[in-house]
Amino acid sequence: MRIYVISDTHGRTDKAVEIYKTLRDIDLIVHLGDYWNDAQIIKNRLNAPLIGVKGNMDGSFTREGYHILETDFGQIFLAHGHMEYVKYGLENIVYKAKSLQCVAAFFGHTHIPLFREEQGIYLLNPGSLSMPRGGRNGSYAVATLTENSLDAAILYLP
User: Fold this and answer.
1) Is the pTM of this model over 0.85?
2) S-S: 52 plus which of 31, 134, 140, 158, CB 3.0-4.6 Å?
3) Residue 56 and residue 137: Cα distance in Å, rounded?
């Protein structure tokens, strides 16, 4: 399974659509919030399978504002990350993923890309295509999952 992972588009969907059209063998798009309406626009423009979650800019401030994605590798916790306070550390999102028996957590909110394993949980933040932070160009991720592995590449706009 190959997943195109984006976050924090903040009303700017054109780049996300353009990038998708250049990718091969994508099974699913995951949009990790800010803005949830962007996810619906992208889904309609591409007529592609998409799962989206709401973020803080969507007014989502409930602990239930997440989605569990079932994959051959295991369950993946999908959230914007604001309710897990990811700007202040990764402990809460790791704990939440573990408490839900997930093997990974995909999140946004910080606008800073990240892919690493923490306490046995794979963490993926694609950064932001339209409002990157940390002096980087806009970014997104492509996650590749099999029954035995999860790998991800963070890719940057030129």
Assistant:
1) yes
2) 31
3) 23
**Token pair of 9, please?**
């588009």
What phi and psi values does residue 46 have, to the nearest 5 degrees? Answer: -100, -15
Supply φ then ψ for residue 91, to 5 degrees: -60, -45
CA 106-32-42 angle, 5° bins: 135
Residue whose token pair is 């994508």:
26
Cα angle vertex 36, ends 130, 134, to 5°?
30
End-to-end CA distance of the chain: 26
Rounded Cα gap, residues 121 and 104, in angstroms: 5
Pairing of strands 104-106, 121-125: parallel
User: Tell me: the pLDDT tens digits for 4-59?
Assistant: 999 999 999 999 999 999 999 999 999 998 988 999 999 999 999 999 999 998 88
Q: In sequence order, what E strands does 32-120 have?
A: 50-52, 66-70, 75-79, 104-106, 114-118
Which DSSP state fits 24?
A: S
